[in-house]
Each structure stands twice: as structure tokens, then as C-alpha cells.
Amino acid sequence: MIGAALAIARVKLVLEIRRREVIFAMLLFIAATIVIVHFALSGDTGAGNRAAAGMLWAAIVFTAVLGLLRTFAAEHEGGVLDALLLAPIDRAAIWLGTALAQFGFLVVIELVAVPVWWALFFQGDGPSVGTVVLALLLADIGIALVGTLSAALALGARTRDVLLPVLVLPLLIPVILGGVTATYGAFGEDVGGLRPLGFLALYDLVFIALAWGTSEHLLGD
Amino acid sequence: MQPPEITLVECSKRFGDRLALRKATLSIAAGETVVLLGPNGAGKSTLLRLVAGLLRPTAGSARIGDVEAIAAPKAVRAGIAYAGHAPQLYRGLTARENLDLHLRLHTTTADTGALLERVGLGDRADERIDGFSRGMLQRLALARATAHAPVLLLLDEPASGLDADGRALLDDTLRAAIGTRTQVVASHDHELAARLGVREVRLDNGGIA
To answer: Taking CB atoms and an 8 Å limit, are A11 and B81 in contact across chains?
Structure first.
């Protein structure tokens, strides 16, 4: 199953490298959001670290939704989903491969966006890098899992572009809470040690189990 | 792997208010080739997708051998090939990459160069298929559908967009497997069954005529 999932993920990454349909739009959106909020808050000295942390996580989640709207686009346009469903593979492999690709997209945009955020909001006294990176990676796993699951749910709907954000955003609220709290901790605030990171890891595990159990039914008729 | 028998019993499929297939009962012997004929909207594509296990019957059953098509396990799915209206190919990949992915998912190996050569696409193997014509996509879809040596081949209007050479290739592919592979072909070609010397089944308005 892992081999099939990796093959699907690889195809989606190759398609993205060739077509640049998803990552480019996501990069543009998150960079614009960070820059606009930076200028919007620049006169407010009271906003501080908490506003910067909240802004980063909100931007990541909305950018992720933008990418998720194209989750199964390549499969939909060529009828490829039928071929994948008929292949002698676990249907969880389709979901897992797609989620892996989504995870890759998120990591790529964060590699660009987070340094921009850092440069604009902090002058050498930013949060602990390790904690922020770990929180981002755990959150990316959760966003990719939940987003792909929601995209599969919305796949058959005529109004899936509207339905997907409605489905996915409430499910991602725990990711925002965990991520923001972990970032507060990275600034030195007392947030209960590693508790926010543990919360994000638990969220990931719950949705791995949920997606694993439901993908056979979600992706069929 | 042996070619399977196909059995539809009182099989119906409804999409919203529209009954696409109405109590269809049909038996196709193991290794038999059947041509489905009928006007647009007669239910040919729906019947094929039910047999492929891509649709769940609203009522009745569609079986491949002893198993319900919708619940076919991996071992059964490994022997099925279905080529529908869409080519089921990634547009941003090359012809070879599409076949490689298909073979990888079927955990089998084959000479993709030879497969593409056979359908007349040997010299276009490394081109992205988003520049392919409808006929070239059909040829590639045929190569994909037969690449893993299926024992059940389901083709939905496979001749659409094909030139004369392509149609001859399609006829040869079908003829070569008569008796060794169960084949169901939806077509508007009223001569196809006669050319192949096989049974034809007519559908009209969702029912078998």
C-alpha cells in the first residue's frame, strides 16, 4: 500500500512541478497576506507577538484551503479516479498518496512564507525555531489528512468549491488552536510545556485512524 | 487467472429522478465477447460502470463470477480493465509515464515501449499527452486497458475518435482475445458484432431490448 501511495504522491508532485497550478497560487496568497497584515499592524505597537502568531496560522490555514480546492482536480479532469479505484490497491492508498502530496505543497510554501513572516515581524528576537518548525510539521500533517478527507467527501458534489471550505475550516480549528498556542510557547510564554505539540500529534493520529477507516467508502460510489 | 462470467439480475440504477438502467438481466459467459448497442442514453455506459464496480446498483445485482462487482476484492479488480468516455490518463504526464503508473499500481511489469509501439504511439512515448488528439488518447487508453493482461475488458465506445487504422487495431485486439477474455464493448458500430462474430445485446431507454 505504501508503494502505491508513494507512486500517486510522486505523480501529483511531478504534475505540480510541470503545471505550477497549486503551489504558485498558494505562495502568492500567503505572501500577500503576510505583507498586507504586516502593514496593517505596523502602527499598532500593542499587537506584538500574539498577533504575529495568529496571523501566521490563519494565513497557513486559508492558503491550505486554496490548495485543497485542487486536490483531486487532475484525477477529475481525465477520469483518472476510475482507473485508481479499479486498480488492485487499497483505496486508503489513494487518500494517503494525495495527502502526502498536499503535505509536500504545504512544506514548500512554508519554506518561503515563514522566513518572510520572520523578517517582517521580528528583528532578531523571534520565537524558538525548533518549536515553530515542529508545530508547523505536525499541523501540516493534520491539514493534509483532514483536507484530503474533506476533498474526497466533497468530490461528488456539484458545489464542491463551496462545500470544501465549509467542511474543512471547522475541522481545522483545533489545528489553529494548537499551532497558535505552540507558537506562544516558542515566544517563552508558559503554555504547559509540550502540551500544544502533543495536542497536534494526537489530532493527527485521530484523523489518520478516521481516514484509514473511511477511505474505502468515501472514494467509491 | 480465468476469465469471469458476468451476471446482471434485475439490475437498476437511478440518478436522481432518472432511471438510467431498468431491471436489466443479462448473462455473459466466461470468455464471451458481447457488443452493447443502443442510442445515446440507452444505459450502455451505466451498465458497464455497474459491471466494473464503479457504481452501486439501486436495485438488483451485478456480479463478476461469484462476487458483487461493487465489492470486488483486489484480486478480482486486478483482472478488470475499464476504458470509459474519459481516457483515465493524467494529462500532465507522458504516454510512457501514464503506462508506468498503471503497471506499478497493478504490481506488474511490461515493456511500455512495445505496448506503445503496438498502438502506434511508439514515437510519441515521451510526449505529454495534453497535446494528444482524441484518437491518440483512445489508442493510449486501449494500451493502458490491456497492459496488465486483464481477464475482463470493458470498453465504452472505444472507436470514437479513431481513424481507420485505429479501428482495425481495436478489432484485432478484441478478436485476438475472444474465448480467453470476457469482453463487453459499448458501441454505435452496428457492424462490430458481425465483424467479430460475437453476440450483440441491444439496450433502449434503460432496458435490455
So the answer is: no
Tell me if A151 sits within 8 A of A161, measured CB to CB.
no
DSSP letters of A56-70?
A: HHHHHHHHHHHHHTT
Residues 6+ apart with CB under 8 A from B156: B44, B45, B48, B82, B83, B84, B85, B186
pLDDT (tens, 9 = 90+) of chain A, 221 residues, equals 788 999 999 999 999 988 888 899 999 999 999 999 888 887 565 568 888 889 999 999 999 999 999 888 888 888 899 999 999 999 889 999 999 999 999 999 999 999 999 888 887 777 888 999 999 999 999 999 999 999 988 887 778 888 999 999 999 999 999 999 999 888 888 877 789 999 999 999 999 998 888 877 766 66
Whole-model pTM: value is 0.88
Q: What are the chain B neighbours of A77 within 8 Å (beta carbons)? A: 91
Are β-strands B199-204 and B207-208 bridged in parallel, bridged antiparallel, or unpaired?
A: antiparallel
User: Nine-digit cell at B202?
Assistant: 441491444
B90, A11: Cβ pair inside 8 Å?
Answer: yes
Contacts with A78 (C-beta within 8 Å, 6 or more apart), sequence order: B86, B87, B88, B89, B90, B91
Q: What backbone torsions phi and psi does residue A156 show, to the nearest 5 degrees?
A: -85, -10
Residue of B53, B75, B88 lying closest to A80 (CB–CB): B88
Is CATH 3.30.365.10 the classification given to domain B1-79+152-209?
no
Strand pairing partners for B94? Answer: B128
Domain ranges for chain A, please list them: 2-218
Q: Looking at this protein, which amino acid is placed at residue A48?
A: G
Q: Does A3 touch chain B (CB under 8 A)?
A: yes
Q: Where are the domains of chain B?
A: 1-79+152-209, 88-149
